[in-house]
């Protein structure tokens, strides 16, 4: 590790920080024990690419699986919300924050 790596931001995109915060919140609320999380995430990451560019994609998929498996939200709910965010992102003018209110079908 280089000294410059220590000064790099922890997250390269805001959604990564939000995903991390959601995972922490689920843990703190007692819905997702860290041992279970780390086992599930580790199992998914085994096939990851060497440069870790798929790290957050694996994180998101692991979280979706765990939330569904624990009946916090169903797979259909998660998929519907993901589509709503995608529609909102496509409908949001460049440079503005993406919010669910921007989903044209909401």
Q: Would you kindly provide a written description of the structure presented here, covering whatever features stand out?
A:
The chain has 5 helices and no strands. The radius of gyration is 16 Å and the shape is globular. Among the domains are: 13-21 and 33-42 and 53-72, no CATH class; 75-106, no CATH class. The longest helix is centred in the C-terminal third of the chain and has 17 residues, at 75-91. Helices cover 59% and strands 0% of the residues. It has 106 residues and is mainly α. Helix 3 packs across helix 4. The mean pLDDT is 86.
Short description:
Among the domains are: 13-21 and 33-42 and 53-72, no CATH class; 75-106, no CATH class. 59% of the residues lie in helices and 0% in strands.
User: What's the rounded overall pLDDT mean?
Assistant: 86
Structural class: mainly alpha
Query: What percentage of residues falls in helices of 4 or more residues?
Result: 55-70%
Compressed to H and E, one letter per element, the order equals HHHHH
Question: Largest sheet, described in full?
Answer: none
- Percent strand: under 5%
Number of helices: 5
């Amino acid at each position: 590790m280089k000294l410059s790596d220590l000064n790099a931001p922890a997250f390269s995109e805001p959604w990564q920080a939000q995903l991390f915060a959601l995972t922490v919140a689920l843990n703190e609320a007692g819905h997702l024990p860290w041992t279970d999380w780390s086992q599930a995430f580790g199992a998914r990451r085994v096939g990851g690419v060497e440069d870790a560019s798929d790290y957050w994609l694996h994180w998101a998929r692991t979280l979706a699986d765990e939330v569904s498996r624990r009946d916090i939200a169903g797979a259909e709910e998660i998929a519907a919300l993901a589509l709503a965010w995608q529609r909102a992102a496509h409908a949001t003018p460049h440079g503005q924050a993406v919010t669910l209110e921007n989903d044209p079908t909401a």
